[in-house]
Write a structure and sequence with these properties.
The protein has 283 residues and is α+β, with helices and mostly antiparallel strands. It is 35% helix and 15% strand.
Length: 283
């Protein structure tokens, strides 16, 4: 995407007239992302890249930029629209609609329609919340204080996933399902940390320490090669690298040229020597 590409206006989710491009200040997508991230008005947005990602999610689905910023959360590296945004997108759709048929202290039922015809019902009850572990989970206080709102959020998300997935470009999940802390309306107030990559346990530094230095003769070279084995074994055990079979290249003599004036040594490979089998590695 060209950095100077202008941000098109998506379909408005309200009856208000859609904002014209110049009402955004004629910003590029990159500029808009920086402005939104720097504003400090949107929780959980760390940088312009995240802001742009939310805006693009909305742009592809006809959601204005500010509405996407407020209604889309990033949880465990997934873009998760809130139940309120799902409801607004369904209501604004020319194809789908919904009706809340039950909303009480026992649960919530929502009937989904396509072109005015019923296509399914999504219900979430106290029993469902109990089975899902929600009543005793990290959001238990909200389930106790705002039971109907929480049931609506779950019933709406399930129904959107089951009956109207083409509205959102695929399956959707509630923030709570992905482990986020939410308020009484199901809006995210805290997200779980994203998975961290495995630590390399310092093996790269150890590998570099072994690889550097002068090789004065063939004995030094072979000693260096042997010292790689336990480091590589540790890296494989830590899951940092993956062991693959060596090709059968055959044996060949190793030639070492004389040291040059700068006391460095050049190793010339006439052919690859036989690699040591894993059973022959020194520990």
């Amino acid at each position: 995407m060209n950095d100077r590409e202008r941000v098109p206006q998506g379909r408005a989710l309200t009856t208000a007239k859609p904002l014209e491009l110049n009402e955004y200040g004629d910003l590029t997508l990159s500029e808009l992302g920086r402005v939104l991230a720097a504003s400090g008005y949107f929780d959980g947005v760390r940088d312009a890249a995240q802001a742009i990602t939310k805006v693009l999610w909305g742009r592809e689905r006809g959601v204005p930029a500010i509405q996407a910023m407020m209604g889309v959360n990033i949880i465990k590296n997934k873009l998760v629209p809130s139940a309120d945004l799902l409801a607004a997108m369904i209501k604004s759709s020319a194809k789908y609609d919904y009706l809340v048929t039950t909303l009480d202290d026992h649960g919530c039922s929502i009937t989904f329609l396509e072109h005015g015809k019923v296509i399914g019902v999504s219900t979430f009850t106290r029993e469902d919340a109990q089975k899902a572990g929600a009543l005793g989970g990290p959001n238990k206080s909200n389930w106790s204080s705002y039971f109907r709102n929480m049931c609506f959020a779950r019933a709406m998300t399930n129904g959107a996933r089951w009956y109207t997935p083409d509205c959102f470009g695929g399956a959707v999940y509630s923030a709570e399902e992905l482990g986020a802390m939410v308020d009484g309306d199901g809006n995210v107030i805290d997200v779980p940390p994203a998975p961290q990559p495995k630590q390399d346990t310092g093996f790269r530094k150890r590998l570099g320490d072994v690889a550097t230095g002068q090789l004065n003769n063939e004995r030094d070279f072979r000693a260096k090669m042997e010292s790689f084995n336990p480091i590589i074994d540790d890296a494989i055990a830590a899951g940092v690298i993956q062991e693959v079979p060596f090709p059968d290249v055959g044996a060949a003599p190793l030639d070492l040229e004389s040291p040059t004036d700068d006391d460095s040594t050049t190793i010339e490979y006439r052919d690859l020597p036989d690699p040591p089998h894993s059973s022959q590695r020194t520990s």
